[in-house]
Design brief:
Helix content: over 70%
Mean pLDDT: 83
Radius of gyration: 30 Å
Largest sheet: none
Number of domains: 2
Keywords: Coiled coil
Distance between the termini: 92 Å
Strand content: under 5%
Number of strands: 0
Length: 150
């Protein structure tokens, strides 16, 4: 049978699903922007503590070490967010190309979708319950006129 379109080649299992450097750079900028307030707060806390009262050299060293540990934690958080977002993008590209997904990622995606569906259903039930619980206020003139005169 003849077709109107040229057949497209099946995607190879080894297709490149890696985002380009521009995508990765934008992701890094976004993560840095999201964590900027944490970095600023850590710096401000150190400065405030040092300004509050005179500190000994030992105390200053301890405070500086605590600050560096906090900054390292923030950096680790940023790296973890980058790894997670990068892997998610890779898996989404696999999925879009019709490739087999990693089971763990597929399970996570199913759980996320179920959570979204559950939230929508809860909101719908809450809205229905709140709209049905509103009872009209009876008109007193109607209730008096329905009584028989005594």
């Amino acid at each position: 049978m003849t077709t109107l379109f040229q057949s497209t080649a099946e995607p190879s299992p080894a297709a490149d699903f890696e985002p380009d450097e521009q995508w990765k750079s934008r992701l890094k900028v976004d993560i840095e922007s999201n964590l900027r307030s944490m970095v600023d707060e850590a710096k401000q806390n150190l400065q405030d503590t040092l300004k509050r009262a005179p500190v000994t050299a030992v105390e200053r060293e301890r405070l500086t070490e605590e600050h560096l540990a906090t900054m390292k934690n923030i950096r680790n958080l940023a790296e973890e967010q980058f790894r997670i977002a990068l892997e998610r993008e890779r898996q989404e590209r696999r999925w879009a190309a019709g490739q087999v997904l990693d089971q763990e990622w597929s399970d996570t995606m199913i759980k996320e979708q179920q959570a979204i569906l559950d939230k929508i259903e809860r909101e719908r039930k809450d809205k229905a319950a709140s709209s049905s619980s509103v009872q009209p206020i009876p008109d007193p003139s109607l209730t008096r006129s329905s009584r028989s005169p005594e």
